[in-house]
Amino acid sequence: MNNVAIVGRPNVGKSSLFNKLTKSKKAIVSEFEGLTRDRQVGKSVIDNLAYEIIDSGGLNFSKNNNALDTQILNQTNLAADEADLILFVVDYKSGLLPDDQVISKLLRKKDKDICLVINKVDGVSDEIAKLDFSKLGYQQVICTSMSHNYGIDLIVELIVHKLDGIPILNEIDDNFKIAILGKPNAGKSTLINSLIGSDRLIASDLPGTTIDSIEIEIELNSDKYILVDTAGIRRKGKVTVKEEKFALLKSLESAKNANFILLIIDSSVGITSQDQALITECLKSFKPLILLFNKWDLLNQYEKERFDSELEKFNLNFGFIDNIKISAEKKTNLSKIFKNIKAIRQHLDKEYKTSILNKLLEDALINHPPSISKGLRPKLKFMSFVSKSPLAFKIHGNHLEDLAPSYKRYLDNYFRKALSLQSIPLKMIFEASDNPYAHKAKKISTGLVTRRKIKNQLRKKLSGKN
Predict the structure, then answer these.
(1) Are 279 and 320 spatial neighbours (Cβ–Cβ below 8 Å)?
(2) pLDDT, tens digit, for every residue of 132-165?
(3) What is the pLDDT of residue 372?
(4) Roughly what angle, to the nearest 10 degrees, separates helices 334-348 and 188-196?
(5) Where does the G domain start and stop, copy by copy (predicted)?
(6) Which range has the top average pLDDT, 184-198, 230-244, 311-325?
(7) Where are the domains of the chain?
């Protein structure tokens, strides 16, 4: 008995309450209603006891009941069914509305322990606020103001009094976090539902169904993972609403905080320039990456051949990234995803000895030495291992600031191939050795080659005079 569900109309303060109880910013908070759609789950730790807090989507019965509203209602029903305590949140400023009464009837049928939370009580006494909602007939009523942290302590006391928390024994979070990114309607939520074997997330043909980043725990073959469903990432020019921009930032932040990234591409549309921009953005986070070409089952033979032809050109730049052709809806090739993830994790867990790295560096230099720049050839002396996440190596030497970008790409590709680092972005750090006599040396404004040309021209002039 440790589950708390937060239920109510849109924009009454459910997500604000969720964030305060979990001491996080997992749920998007805004005056723009309807941002929470899927169930958001978090932990509230009180006196070394953990309680599960579930934020649900806002229930709206006054509008036409479309498919999305129906799915939100289903998700909220599931949250209420799982809960041991329900916090039914209403808005004092809006007053008691018909939707509140409908929600109240639905909750009473659950036969659960319910506490009415009257939010946005600012400037009035609790007695007056409670009087306005007395028609609902709840014995447990708490008045709050999320913006002023008023009443939160009473909710915490209620949770501790009513529920049995799970003891926290200084546990280490060793779960492997996988962020699932992609454009709107690429199939991110459908993929997670297929992987966990239930309709945990709302999946719809309507682009932009997912707005919040939702974390879901999953265990496969004794390995624990956290799947993070993110909002669909559209082109910057297409993102107009403030809340959508915030959702975009949360998606990118989820990628940076994850251990691994799965980027879903709609194969029925093809690999677009936006997909390639997303790949580039993911690589900047230096997290392992796998591309999932979803909806492969929707393509006919001609379309599959055309896609493969397009993929060959794509692989000229991104060939080091693993890709899997899947159908999230029909669960085709989903087992390959975690097989690849496990193989890549084994490479990340390896120790890279300095002696091996330096032998590879020597081979790379023999195979293709750096070009002369400003009359000097950069000198790469030795190499060392820096970190596993991100996987980083450091090369020490002289005049490394003059290394051409193309040569840095050559080294990156060479070491990735030599060390079998498929799908793993490699961070190469170039550090110039300090010269203790640099302050005594005369400043040379020209390079060696240029100085030779000047000397040769001077010799010609002198020989002409003679």
Answers:
(1) no
(2) 899 999 999 999 998 888 999 999 999 999 998 8
(3) 86
(4) 90
(5) 3-120, 177-295
(6) 311-325
(7) 3-167, 176-346, 350-466
Q: For the chain, what percent of residues have pLDDT higher than 70? A: 82
The candidate with the shortest Cα–Cα distance to 334, out of 305, 371, 294, 382, is 294
Euclidean distance between CA atoms 424 and 419, whole angstroms: 11
Q: Which residues are annotated as a binding site?
A: 8-15, 55-59, 119-122, 182-189, 229-233, 294-297
Helices (H) and strands (E) in the chain, counts: 13, 16
Fold classification of 350-466 (topology level): GMP Synthetase; Chain A, domain 3 (3.30.300)
* Angle made by CA atoms 270, 178, 23, in degrees to the nearest 5: 125
Its CATH class, for the domain covering 3-167, is alpha beta
Strands 392-398 and 289-294, by their bridges, are unpaired
Please check whether the two domains, 3-167 and 350-466, share a CATH topology.
no
In this structure, the number of other CB atoms found within 10 A of the CB of residue 27 comes to: 22
- What rounded mean pLDDT belongs to the chain? 82
Output the CA–CA distances (angstroms, integers) from residue 315 to 230, 306, 308, 319, 320, in the order listed. Answer: 26, 14, 10, 4, 8
Report helix angle 354-367 to 405-418, nearest 10.
130
Residue set of the binding site for GTP? 8-15, 55-59, 119-122, 182-189, 229-233, 294-297
Cis peptide before 369 (omega within 30 of 0): no
pLDDT of 118 reads 94
What DSSP string runs through 204-260? -SSTT---S-EEEEEEETTEEEEEEE------GGG--SHHHHHHHHHHHHHHHHSSE
pLDDT for position 208? 45
Provide the terminal-to-terminal Cα distance of the chain, rounded to the nearest Å: 105
Better-predicted residue by pLDDT, 296 or 29? 296
Tell me the C-alpha to C-alpha distance, in Å, between residue 159 and each of 19, 49, 78, 145, 329.
15, 11, 20, 18, 39
Q: Rounded to an integer, what distance in angstroms lies between the CA atom of residue 56 and that of residue 210?
A: 13
Other CB atoms within 10 Å distance of the CB of residue 243: 17
This prediction has a pTM of: 0.65
- 48 against 382, higher pLDDT: 382
**Interatomic CA distance for residues 101 and 404, integer angstroms:** 69
Q: What is the Cβ-side half-sphere exposure of residue 265, based on CA atoms within 13 angstroms?
A: 24
Confidence of residue 206 (pLDDT cuts 50, 70, 90): very low
CATH code for residues 176-346: 3.40.50.300
- Give the residues across from 260 on adjacent strands: 178
- Which pLDDT value is given to residue 64? 55
Which residue(s) pair with 114 in the sheet?
Answer: 86
